[in-house]
Task: inverse folding
């Protein structure tokens, strides 16, 4: 599935990538390397991949952002971590760097980077706010009043209306990509499993597929099917959580509590079926945890009994539906322009679901979600639909697997100690397409870039909030339900 | 010197300092009907001024270290520090990454209670937080003249260093506290 790279002269770099976008390809990732080059990975509509490379001559490269605004954050991140300058980028404020970072500290071009904040630190990183009479600045975070990941939001408000929201994320930046560099392949799975507590299976499968592909070993069909069970179980787990959070955003406590109870039922069953309530460490090149198909079928039958009345109830609740309709709209045009992922894209009329291109899904009977209005209600309905479709997928796969051999011991087997090569893998996680761009060199990680679906969706959340009432922010935010960990890394 | 005036309650403030959100999900589960933490006197409160304990998750990212210290400083005494999960406890898979600061102990001071697990289950978190409640329930902790050894230790904690001058107010999160 990996096509040879096409090297570009800097003069062709923008045109080549623009052309890929015009051809309706999806940008998987923009990845920088410490040996002064950049690479873009595109997924074409037919499932083939397209890769372009450009040299970072004299430390600069032509910015794609003016013509492809979806990579604005990617290029700012590259500037912060590598020091490469995207020439022509309209917003060069630090994205990840904080004023504590020393001026010459560019961790991704250093071996074993460490820093001590001192005199040679960068200057400030002030938020962008609206200035003028009657404008109120409201800051939220980085610490929050509940159980939430850390992020800093600066609102410019006029009356009730949000004029601008400035995101200061990356408070949870740990340096995960740098930390993965140099690790032996046998140590990678445990770290990758914890890049994101919500989409962990998706990340684990990406790493596993990468190793299998580079080793030239195809997984057995029943192993692929067991992975599908884990991927879809993760989708159900997260969608139940997100469906619970949306009513919480309007103070609809009973709908929230009942959906949280369904999530807890699912988690307890996952603990019984896989050994982990959040599915950590269930897929690696060595092993795919086997879910007992008959127990899974029983579980889904039980879940449907509590799900059906809940769904009917929230869908028929006039006040709740009223609050969601027309709130936090992302237009189809904006979603395409900024590269929306997952539920957010499918709620705004973009029918793309990476599962359509993932091995194992093609033979199954399921209907990808697609709503057109792009509001909170559409994102809620996409998740409702996807939970039921995931159960249908799980049931079909589980029935196929009854009596199949136990794949516990049927991973790749021995990973070649000198595994080398470049590979890009992707899966459709509950929060959008997660892509991993991986380079291995003699059994060690040379580069590991993680581009999560949420990373793309954050700027779209800002678009959905701006112009609306500040009181709608919790509702809109929860309808995106973006995680910070796999964005901040 | 403050007194803990409620016999069977513990109000907690939570700060995520670089967690993968696994610990958050399991802590959040405690607020649901299956565990119903409020029923046993536990609650997550919106302000550190109302909190008896600070629950920290994550390996403590460099960026969150200063806000984390500011939140801890804002808790009235007596107060307890809880490391929730392997990362905060100093054992997680990200320990050593360039923007991590060694969990709760490495970035602040030894925690009073550690709840291990990746992530710990809601039942384990409930057990751990109940243990925190018990440390505050020692009869002597209500009598200033005879403080418990634990409390004496807590009072010996040297004052935390002030936030560095190179931080902008936005990074410190002062408005929250």
Result:
């Amino acid at each position: 599935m990996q096509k040879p790279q096409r090297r570009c002269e800097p003069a062709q770099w923008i045109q080549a990538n623009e052309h890929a976008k015009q051809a309706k390809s999806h940008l998987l990732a923009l990845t920088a390397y410490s040996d002064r080059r950049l690479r873009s990975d595109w997924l074409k509509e037919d499932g083939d991949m397209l890769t372009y490379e450009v040299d970072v001559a004299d430390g600069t490269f032509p910015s794609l952002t003016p013509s492809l605004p979806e990579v604005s954050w990617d290029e700012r991140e590259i500037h912060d971590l590598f020091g490469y300058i995207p020439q022509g980028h309209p917003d060069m404020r630090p994205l990840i760097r904080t004023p504590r970072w020393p001026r010459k500290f560019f961790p991704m071009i250093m071996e074993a980077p460490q820093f001590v904040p001192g005199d040679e630190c960068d200057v400030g990183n002030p938020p962008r706010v609206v200035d003028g009479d009657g404008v109120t600045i409201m800051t939220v975070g980085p610490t929050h009043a509940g159980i939430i990941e850390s992020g800093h939001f600066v609102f410019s408000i006029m009356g009730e209306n949000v004029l601008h929201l400035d995101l200061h994320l990356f408070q949870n930046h740990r340096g995960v990509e740098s930390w993965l560099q140099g690790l032996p392949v046998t140590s990678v799975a445990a770290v990758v499993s914890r890049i994101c507590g919500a989409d962990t299976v998706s990340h684990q499968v990406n790493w596993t597929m990468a190793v299998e592909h580079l080793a030239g070993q195809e997984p057995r069909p029943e192993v692929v099917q067991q992975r599908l069970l884990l991927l879809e179980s993760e989708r159900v787990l997260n969608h139940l959580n997100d469906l619970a959070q949306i009513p919480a955003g309007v103070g609809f406590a009973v709908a929230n509590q009942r959906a949280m109870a369904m999530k807890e039922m699912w988690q307890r069953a996952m603990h019984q079926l896989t050994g982990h309530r959040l599915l950590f460490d269930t897929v690696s090149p060595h092993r795919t945890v086997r879910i007992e198909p008959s127990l899974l079928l029983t579980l889904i039958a039980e879940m449907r009994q509590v799900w059906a009345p809940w769904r009917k109830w929230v869908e028929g609740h006039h006040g709740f539906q009223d609050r969601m309709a027309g709130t936090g709209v992302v237009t189809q045009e904006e979603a395409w322009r900024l590269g929306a992922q997952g539920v957010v894209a499918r709620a705004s009329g973009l029918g793309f679901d990476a599962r359509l291109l993932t091995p194992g899904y093609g033979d199954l009977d399921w209907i990808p979600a697609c709503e057109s209005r792009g509001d909170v209600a559409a994102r809620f309905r996409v998740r409702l639909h996807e939970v039921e479709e995931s159960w249908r997928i799980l049931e079909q796969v589980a029935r196929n697997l009854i009596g199949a051999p136990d794949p516990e011991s049927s991973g790749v087997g021995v990973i070649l100690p000198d595994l080398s090569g470049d590979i890009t893998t992707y899966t459709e996680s509950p929060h959008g397409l997660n892509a991993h761009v991986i380079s291995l060199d003699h059994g060690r990680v040379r580069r590991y870039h993680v581009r999560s679906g949420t990373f793309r969706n954050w700027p779209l959340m800002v678009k959905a909030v701006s112009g609306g009432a500040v009181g709608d922010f919790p509702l809109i935010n929860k309808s995106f339900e973006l995680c910070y960990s796999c964005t901040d890394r | 010197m403050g007194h803990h005036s409620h016999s069977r309650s513990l109000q907690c403030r939570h700060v995520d300092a670089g967690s993968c959100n696994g610990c958050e999900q399991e802590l959040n589960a405690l607020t649901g009907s299956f565990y119903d933490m409020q029923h046993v006197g536990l609650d997550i409160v919106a302000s550190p001024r109302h909190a008896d304990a600070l629950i920290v998750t994550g390996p403590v990212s460099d960026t969150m270290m200063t806000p984390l210290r500011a939140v801890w400083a804002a808790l009235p005494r007596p107060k307890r520090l809880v490391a929730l999960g392997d990362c905060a406890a100093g054992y997680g898979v990200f320990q050593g990454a360039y923007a991590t600061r060694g969990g709760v102990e490495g970035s602040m001071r030894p925690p009073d209670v550690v709840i291990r697990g990746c992530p710990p289950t809601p039942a384990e978190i409930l057990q751990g937080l109940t243990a925190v409640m018990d440390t505050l329930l020692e009869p002597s902790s209500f009598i200033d003249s005879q403080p418990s050894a634990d409390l004496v230790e807590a009072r010996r904690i040297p004052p935390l260093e002030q936030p560095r001058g190179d931080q902008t107010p936005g990074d410190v999160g002062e408005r929250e506290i």
Observations:
- The mean pLDDT of chain B is 79.
- The helical segments of chain B are 22-29, 62-74, 85-89, 103-107, 122-137, 149-155, 169-172.
